[in-house]
Design a protein that fits this description.
Elements: H1 9-28, H2 33-52, H3 56-63, H4 71-78, E1 79-84, E2 97-104, E3 107-114, H5 120-125, H6 133-148, E4 153-159, H7 166-170, H8 173-186, E5 191-200, H9 201-205, E6 212-216, E7 220-222, H10 226-233, H11 240-247, H12 251-256, E8 262-264, H13 275-293, H14 298-317
């Protein structure tokens, strides 16, 4: 059953009426095709109007939708012969980070993603997409492996942030994130990063320091979550909506600020409504971006990536 967000209640009511009419038609032999068609058209217009004017807070809700495709959905849908690789070779295998080798439409790649999980059991197993230090060290190991074998890297970002627990700090969370960013910037192979849901804080940029950084249309990307920002500034999570407006966390805002390089359109009503179409759209863009970077020499690839982020810093100082 579809999960509706708060602002989708009028849409939910219309879809409920359509489902009820269809049930009456199938069980009672009534001809209700015309009535269903009218309601279907009304629902699609309402859906289009609603998603055309989403606020930053509503975008945040869409980015967190429980039915939204997760990293493993994209990997399973796009990567042929995927071979998962585990562990950081030092402490443990953090399942908030998934990654391995495979082929994207014939092109051998290393793919690394932050996985949130889909039900209670898998969310707990993947720690709700919040990596610990060993997760970032695992990502670094896979990136270096890709560099050694001249394979392009794809990263799929979807995390509320790095895990804030005491044990993560004890094992060097900040250092692991910094080293992961450093590894991204040091690669001599193409790195294409996509924010597929939430891009939260340093936990996101640790995997998103790419030659090309893309966002799905209804994804969000920010230095802190709206709730975290509100709790710091107003000492209350109730101001999260106000914080979301101020953070400029939407794909449109971030493209205007030149923090990201492109926006991938989502199906009407968000990726959670038509996950197959969303996964295909991402695959089309990834294929195009990797082909554009394929002919560049390793030193040029690294220099372009570094200068891209240095330019952001200059803009901030201007």
């Amino acid at each position: 059953m579809h999960t509706y967000l708060d602002f989708e209640k009028p849409i939910a009511e219309l879809e409920g009426k359509i489902a009820e009419l269809r049930h009456m038609g199938s069980s009672g032999g009534l001809d209700i095709a015309e009535e269903v068609s009218k309601l279907q058209g009304k629902m699609e217009r309402l859906l289009k109007q609603t998603y055309a004017k989403l606020s930053p807070w509503q975008k945040t809700q869409v980015a967190r939708h429980p039915d939204r495709p997760k990293a493993l959905d994209y990997i399973n849908g796009l990567i042929d012969d995927f071979t998962p690789l585990a562990g950081d070779r030092a402490f443990a295998d953090d399942q908030a980070i998934v990654g391995g080798l495979g082929r994207l439409r014939g092109q051998s790649v290393m793919v690394i993603g932050q996985e949130k999980g889909r039900d209670t059991e898998s969310r707990v197993r993947h720690n709700f997409g919040m990596p610990r230090p060993e997760g970032y060290r695992k990502a670094m190991r896979l990136m270096r492996l890709a560099d050694r074998f001249h394979l392009p890297v794809i990263t799929l970002v979807d995390t509320p942030g790095a895990y804030p627990g005491k044990e993560a700090e004890e094992r060097g969370q900040a250092e692991a994130i910094a080293r992961s960013i450093e590894t991204c910037l040091d690669l001599r192979v193409p790195l294409v990063s996509v924010i597929i849901g939430e891009g939260g804080s340093g936990g996101a940029i640790a995997l998103a320091s790419g030659n090309v950084v893309l966002m799905l249309q209804h994804a969000v990307y920010s230095v802190i979550s709206p709730e975290g920002c509100a709790s710091i500034l107003w000492r209350s999570g109730e101001q999260a909506e106000t914080a979301a407006d101020a953070l400029r966390l939407t794909a449109t805002d971030l493209q205007a600020l030149k923090v990201i390089d492109g926006i991938i359109p989502e199906p009407l009503g968000g990726a959670h409504r038509e996950p197959t179409a969303a996964i295909k759209a991402l695959g089309d863009v990834l294929e195009k971006k990797l082909k554009a970077l394929a002919g560049l020499e390793g030193g040029v690839i690294r220099a372009k990536r570094r200068s891209k982020f240095l330019e952001m810093g200059k803009q901030g100082l201007a």
